[in-house]
Specification:
TIM Barrel, eight-stranded parallel β-sheet, three-stranded antiparallel β-sheet, 11 helices, about 15% strand, binds zinc ion
């Protein structure tokens, strides 16, 4: 029997939604994670400090008795965002990042940015005060193949932005390619990248070969096997540039199993067990705590969590509920497609 103990982990990219869905999924994260960077792509989006404070109150109100969890709030960057409001938000201590969604890139991103030059005053303010910009790193040009959108974003948007504003602290969210891995590795102190659990496990064959599997469809979409392997090397490298952002994103089954299915994998429930499995496969169990618990706080300039969480490898595989039963409908928990033996201890 093998056992590992980690400082309580954080999720540096999480979708909690709102209302009944928030109440259903929040315990899945709070059970294991102390904090999370909470994505602001609600309808309508969380744009201002006031929006973020109200959303934070709703999250804390939805937290079951006896659980502790600290939501780290983000603002949704729009072309109308006021730099002074962003500065107040950072000063509040409750807002930890601003999120850039290229307009139309993913779920509820219609209000995103079309022209970066229009938000330069906001980005300059963020660079001055050290507030990170979290990027959904995909171009939305219909001419660009969906499997190339991350690499093209790096070349045509991110690299030029960082040359223009090198002091801006940037998190490349949910990188999915070897180009993303390489750019993050060479980006210096002001750049980091999050990696999801599911992108360490699936490649595009899992989605498309032998029938379409909508519960593996997410954005950015999983790429070729060589990219999955590059992500695994990065995540398990011990390089503090990379840390966990699950991008766990609940959609009800009816909208996943649909003629135009929603993007998102729901991994909050089983992420830690899956990561222990992946890190063990890569011979890097000793580096798991960096990825889940240390590199993220270092980049966000926050303390490592005081508590710990332990996992134990047992002969019998873990079991999870196949679905989380939310009032709007069932949400399918990510199924890795293989048995996992790392049990999170209560
Ligand atoms: Zn996301």
């Amino acid at each position: 029997m093998q056992r590992i103990t980690l400082p309580r982990p954080d999720d540096w990219h999480l979708h909690l939604r709102d209302g009944a869905m928030l109440r259903a999924v929040l315990p899945e994260t709070a059970r294991h994670f102390a904090r999370a960077i909470v994505m602001p792509n609600l309808v309508p989006p969380v744009v201002t400090l006031d929006d973020a404070l109200a959303y934070r109150d709703r999250i804390l109100a939805a937290l079951p008795e006896g659980m502790s969890f600290q939501p780290l709030m983000t603002l949704y960057l729009t072309e109308g965002t006021d730099p002074a409001d962003v500065e107040r938000a950072a000063a509040s201590g409750l807002v930890k990042a601003v999120k850039l969604y290229p307009a139309g890139a993913t779920t509820n991103s219609q209000s995103g940015v079309r022209d970066l030059t229009r938000v330069m005053p906001v980005l300059e303010t963020m660079a001055r005060i050290g507030l990170p910009l979290c990027t959904h790193g995909e171009v939305t040009d219909p001419q660009v193949d969906i499997f190339d959108r991350e690499a093209v974003f790096i070349d045509t948007v991110l690299a030029p932005l960082r040359r223009r504003l090198p002091e801006l602290r940037v998190v490349m969210e949910h990188i999915t390619t070897e180009e993303g891995v390489a750019y993050a590795a060479g980006g210096g102190e002001n750049l980091a990248a999050t990696i999801t659990t599911h992108h360490l496990i699936i490649n595009r064959n899992h989605i498309l070969a032998g029938g379409i599997r909508p519960h593996y469809y997410c954005l950015p979409v999983a790429k070729r096997e060589k990219h999955r392997l590059a992500l695994r090397r990065a995540a398990t490298s011990g390089n503090p540039r990379y840390f966990l952002g699950t991008d766990s994103a609940p959609h009800v089954d009816a909208l996943k199993e649909h003629a135009c299915g929603c993007a998102g994998c729901f991994t909050a429930t089983n992420t830690l067990s899956l990561l222990a499995h992946v890190f063990e496969e890569e011979g890097a169990l000793d580096r798991l705590e960096g990825f889940t618990s240390r590199h993220g706080p270092a980049f966000y300039r926050l303390p490592v969590n005081a508590g710990t969480i332990a996992l134990e490898k047992r002969a019998e595989p873990c079991t999870w509920p196949e679905k989380i039963h939310a009032e709007p409908g069932p949400v399918t928990v990510f199924n890795p497609g293989f048995p996992v033996h790392w049990h999170v201890l209560p």
